[in-house]
Amino acid sequence: ILKYLLLMKMKVSELVFVLSCVLCVSADVLHDDFAINGCSDTDGEVMYGLDNEETWYADFINSRGEEPQPSFIDHIGRSEGMFEEALEGQRVCKRNLGLRREAMAEIPLENNPPSSLLIYTRDHVELGEKNTLICYVTGFYPAPVKVSWTKNGRNTTEGTSINVPHPSRDGSFTQISRLQFVPEQGDIYSCSVEHPALNQPLTRIWEVEEQQPSVGPAVFCGLGLTVGLLGVAAGTFFLVKGNECS
Q: What is the pLDDT of residues 59-80, one digit of tens each?
């Protein structure tokens, strides 16, 4: 089943999005494989995903394709020549931009605030090792949102990026901002989101905490030893009492 969804009406800037969803159905598994080709007068996005997660996107600033999959999952490779195809898709998108604006000019604008804001790291945290903080914003309309980052209470823009918002099936949008950073003990980061439907920015905080070794095995071994000693003590007590009675 191939569906195309065109969502273009925006308050801050107008974009054109084409969302292609292919439902791959088997006896046991249902997955959503989708692609997005979006553009504006000054920006654009081409992205492929699986089950609401990005598997490949075009980095037009550095003229290359990126595969932002975390290291702990099975890698999903993409074919060569995808970046060149993305460039052609952008040329087509921008040619049609004016026509789309005229077609959608009479659609009333509604404001829906983000329904969810999450902040998490791409990889397992190791102090002193490069990592990526991800700010995941979903459920808002219209697009885009404005995302800002702070480190220890100070605004930071170095190492930040944000994708073009992409539409969901319910007509709302999702947008992802990233911050490249090196975690150091005690550092505190925040991600703040601004949207016309919000009276004040929506903020989430993430703090670098030292990774503690697991204490589970030690606790269980300690409990086992304690129970064992209590059993020995009880057995000795009844043995002595039995000898006294005899």
A: 998 899 888 877 777 776 667 7
Quick check: is 160 in a domain? yes
Which token pair is 3? Answer: 């569906």
d(CA 190, CA 167): 25
Q: Say how far apart CA 133 and CA 179 lie, in whole Å.
A: 5
Amino acid identity, residue 178? R
Give which of 7, 4, 53 is closest to 173, Cα–Cα: 7
Q: What is the pTM of this model?
A: 0.50
Residue 135 sits in a domain whose CATH number is 2.60.40.10
Residue-wise DSSP of 169-231: TTS-EEEEEEEEE---TT-EEEEEEE-TT-SS-EEEEEE--PPPPP-HHHHHHHHHHHHHHHH
Residues of the chain with pLDDT under 50: 1-26, 212-221, 223, 225-227, 232, 240
Instruction: List 137's β-bridge partners, or say none.
Output: 117, 175
Q: Determine the structural domain holding residue 161 and report its residue range.
A: 116-207
- Shared domain for 162 and 95, answered yes or no, is no
